[in-house]
Amino acid sequence: MYRKTLMTMLPLLAALSCANSWAAEPDEIPTFSLRGFGTLGVARSASDQAEFARDFSQPHGIKGGQWSGRIDSVLGLQANWQATPQVELVGQLVSRYRYDESRDPEVMWAFAKWEPDARVALRAGRIGSDFMMLADSRLVGYSYLPVRPSADFFGPLFFSHFDGADASLTLPLGSGLLRSKLFAGATSEKTSIKSGIWDTSGSPVRGLVLDYLTGPWQFRVNSASVRFSHDMNFAPVTDLLRMTGVPSAIAAADQLKLADKTTRYHALGVLYDAGPVQVQGMLNTISNETQAFQNSRAGYLLAGYRLGTVMPYVGVSWWKSKLRPLATGLPNPLFAELNQGLDTIMAAGVADQTTYTLGARWNLCTNTAIKLQWDAVRGSAASKLPVINAQPDWNGRTNVISAVVDFVF
Amino acid sequence: MALRKLFCFLCLMLLAPLAAADLVVVVNPKSGIERLSQEEVINIYLGRYRRLVSGIAAEPIDLMGDNELKTRFYRRLVGKTLAEINAYWARLIFSGRTRPPHLAENVESALHYVAAHPGALAYVERSQADMRVRVVYDLGE
C-alpha cells in the first residue's frame, strides 16, 4: 500500500515542487533563510539472497524484486542566519532511514561560520564530513547527477557529520585556485551492524582536503583518519577466545578490538565540468589498525552528457578488500566451532565487486529533477560486506533499478 | 533531415536579435578594477573566490527568477542551464560552504546596488551600462 502510494505520489510531487520558485530573496543581503531539500524515490534489487543498501548506516536494504522507498527517500530543512557580513549560523535537520530503522529527524549541521575575508573561512559546531568532491552533503540528490553517490565508494564512509571545527584557506595559484581545508573533531553517530547498533560517537577525526580548481577542472587530494572510541560487539567469539587462555587466541581477540584503533582514508579525485559534459572519478584506500575490518581500495568513474533537459550518464565503480588472515592458533577439531566463528567474522568483511551504472537525469524545472537508474552489481560470492544479510546462496550479483524525484525548495 | 535543418534555421532566425545584444559585466567605478578575466568572473559568480585584485570583497548580483538575461549569462559564462546552476547552488548551500549571489528584482535594481556598493558586480546588456558603472568583462555575444 505504502509503495503504491509512493509511486502515485511521485509525479504529483514533481508538479507541486515545480510550482515553487527556488531561492526567492530580497535584493539586499538576506539575514534569515529557510530552505529545504528532499528525495522521494523507489528502488528494487533483483536478488533475494542479500539486501542492497545505500551505505553502512542503513540497518536494512532492499531485496527480492520488491519496490521500496526505504533507501533513498529523504527530507531536509535548513536555516541560515547571516548575523553579520562575516558571521553566519547554519542549522540543518534531516529525516532519513536511520540505523535504528526510524526516520526520526537528526541534526546534520549546526555550526557558526566566520569569514574574515574571501580567503579564509572558519567553522565550528556540527559540520558535514567532506568526502564528496562536490559537496559536504551526500543527501541532497538534486545537487548531483546519479540517484545516489556510488555505494562502492561512499558506502563504507558512513560518517555524515562530526562535532568540531574546520579552517579553509583559498588562494589564487597559477591560473586557478588552491583551496585547503583542515578539520578536526569527534564523530557523533551510530551505525547499524549485524550484531546490533555500533556506537561510533566520540571517535576523534581529523583530516586535510586540498582542491585545485582551474577552468572546468577540479583536482582533489583528501586524507582523513578516525580513532574509534567503542568496540563492536563480536560476542560470544571474542569472549570465548579470551577464556581459552591461549596467548594466540587472546591475541586474535585483541586484533578484533576497535576502541583506540585508527582507520585511515586517502583519496584522489578529478572532475571535469564544462557545458553539457560532466566527468568525475575518484580513487580511495582505507587502511585499518583493527583486523575487524579489511583494508580496501575503491574507485568510481561517472560521465554524463546533457541533451536538452535530459542528461544520460554511465558509470563504473569498484570496491575490493585485501584479506589479512587472522587465526586463533587453536587446534581443530576441538575448537572447530570457535575457529569457524572467527572465520565467519573475517568473511563478513570481504568486499569484491564492480558496479556498472546507466541512468538519466531529467531537469523537470529549475528545482526538481527526475532520475532513472540501473545498477548492475557484479561481484564474487565472497563479497558480503557491501550488502546486508547475505545468505549462503548469495552469488555477488544483483540488478538494482531506481526511480527518484529530487527537489529543493 | 530537411525538417531538422528548417528547425535549426528558424531557431537561428529567432535568436538573431538576442545575439546582436551584447552582454557585459559591470562594477562600481570605485572598485579599483579595470578588467576581469572570464576565470575571475566565474570564481566570483560561482562563489569560489570573491575577492577583487584591489582587495575589496566581491559582491555578485544575480537576477531573480528564471529570466532570459540570466539564462544567457550562465550559458555564455560556463555553458550551463539555470537548472544546472541551481543544482550547483543546492550542493553548496546545503553544505554551508558559500552563499549564492544576492538577488535583484530587475536590471535597474542591480545597477542601483552596484552604484551604491564598491565591491558589487552585475551583468547587463551593454546598452544598459550607464555612467554609474564600469564595464569590466564582455561576454562576447
Q: Shape of chain A, please? A: globular
CATH architecture of chain B: 3-Layer(aba) Sandwich
Please name the fourth-level CATH homologous superfamily of chain A: Porin
Output the strand order for the largest sheet of chain A.
1-3-4-5-6-7-8-11-12-13-14-15-16-17-18-20
> What would CATH call the architecture of chain A?
Beta Barrel
Report the C-alpha radius of gyration of chain B, rounded: 16 Å
- Under CATH, the topology of chain A can be stated as Porin
| Strand order, largest beta sheet of chain B | 3-2-4-1-5
Low-pLDDT sequence parts of chain A: 1-7, 20-27
**Largest sheet report of chain B:** 5 strands, mixed
Q: For the record, give the distance between the C-alpha atoms at the N and C termini of chain B, rounded to a whole number.
A: 28 Å
Number of domains of chain B: 1
**Averaging pLDDT over every residue of chain A, what do you get?**
90
Whole-angstrom Rg of chain A:
22 Å
Kindly provide the name of the CATH class of chain A. Mainly Beta
User: Any low-confidence stretches of chain B, pLDDT <50, length ≥5?
Assistant: 6-20
Q: Main beta sheet of chain A: strand number and arrangement?
A: 16 strands, antiparallel, barrel
Rounded mean pLDDT of chain B is 84
What's the β-strand tally of chain B?
Answer: 5
Summarize the structure.
The complex is a heterodimer of chains A (409) and B (141). With 409 residues, chain A is mostly beta strands. Chain A has 5 helices and 20 strands.
